[in-house]
Amino acid sequence: MSAFIEERVLTVHHWTDRLFSFTTTRDQALRFSNGHFTMIGLRVNDKPLLRAYSIASPNYADHLEFLSIKVQDGPLTSRLQHIQVGDKVIVGRKPTGTLLIDYLLPAKRLYLLATGTGLAPFLSVIRDPETYEKFEQVVLVHGVREVKELAYREMLESTLKQDEFLGELVQQQLLYYPTVTREPFVHQGRIPVVIENGQLAKDLGIPDLNPAEDRVMICGSPEMLRDLKALCEKRGFAEGNTTRPGQFVIERAFADS
Question: Which of 117, 122, 146, 244 has the fewest CB atoms within 10 Å of its CB?
């Protein structure tokens, strides 16, 4: 069996000149856990050109969804950003990754900390009913440079609360905290800064981040991963992985290309 499946593009949405998302068909045999990533790409000169992408759609959806940056000279995204409905995209058959709630020890509160397209895996995690069974509160923090880069903001602020199956859980347990660094906004500042100075906890009315009550998932830029890993470890959090659950997990699989 081939390691890849060809799927057909169903929709494409351009959020900004640097950010877009798209959905594809889904092979019924493809299995993944919410938070997983897989390899996706295009055929170029009859060879697959692939990169790791988190799956933004929940594992019960009949389609796949991905969120991507646009890099004008990137080997893959310079091409991928031009896909249209009906085009074919290659999808890997073996999703994997560390951003699974199974890799975290039990606790009261789950923090999902993302910059840019690092939001993608958490879009599936917050649409997983099991997430709300395991944690009393789910805090989704999305950091971007400009307000227009807050992809899925309408869904996170309103649409998801009306969902037939998840709406009540989302209303009662999900806290969404968008923060912007380069222009005025209700919340401003890099994620490590708003955690460290207590602004995040103050704005949401929750206790300061601590390993006794909280668990953390982190996905974003290399700089953000480094800073938040150091912040968590300074506060006494132990990192988990696919073989040993911990108090925080990081996804390191991605590169801008």
Answer: 244
5 forms beta bridges with 91
Q: Per-residue confidence at 257, pLDDT binned at 50, 70, 90?
A: very low
Which residues contact residue 101 at a Cβ distance below 8 angstroms, ignoring those fewer than 6 apart? 34, 35, 110, 125, 128, 130, 131, 134, 135
Q: Which residues pair with 43 in a beta bridge?
A: 48
Residues in Cβ contact with 153 at an 8 Å cutoff, skipping those fewer than 6 apart: 178
pLDDT at 65: 98
- Cβ neighbourhood burial of 1 (10 Å; 0-12, 13-18, 19+): exposed
> Rounded distance, CA 231 to CA 205, Å?
20
Say if residues 250 and 242 touch (Cβ distance below 8 Å): no
Can you say whether the dihedral through the CA atoms of 127, 130, 135, 136 is positive or negative?
Answer: positive
47 DSSP β-pair partners: 44
- Which pairing describes strands 63-69 and 19-25: parallel, antiparallel, or unpaired? antiparallel
Percentage, residues of the chain above pLDDT 70: 98
**What are the tens digits of pLDDT across the range 194-234?**
999 999 999 999 999 999 999 999 999 999 999 999 999 99
Q: Per this entry, what is the length of the chain?
A: 257
Burial class from Cβ neighbours inside 10 Å (0-12, 13-18, 19+) for residue 58 reads: middle
d(CA 126, CA 156): 10
> What is the DSSP code (8-state) at residue 3?
S
